[in-house]
Amino acid sequence: MKELVKAFNAEEIAEYLRLHPYTIRRLAREKKIPAFRAGGQWRFRKDDIDQWSKSYPFAKEKVRSKK
């Protein structure tokens, strides 16, 4: 059985990456960030975003860990 993974919205990922939600949505539309649509909204998996941020130039210094 597959394990459910929490999907974050654009605002939550924007806060996590310290970017504006508009920027996150634009990157999703341009397929430059891992995302999927659910109920007409962009959704993001944290594991995918963490992996993506390792290779995306400006995101490297922006990501902070939440403890």
From TrEMBL:
Keyword Isomerase found: no
Pfam name, any one: HTH_17
Top-rank taxon: Bacteria
Residue ranges of domain Helix-turn-helix in the record: 9-52
Single GO MF annotation: DNA binding
Keyword set, alphabetical order: DNA-binding
Keyword Chaperone carried by entry: no
NCBIfam families registered for this protein in UniProt: excise
Protein's name according to its UniProt entry: Excisionase/Xis, DNA-binding domain protein
Organism per entry: Candidatus Omnitrophus magneticus
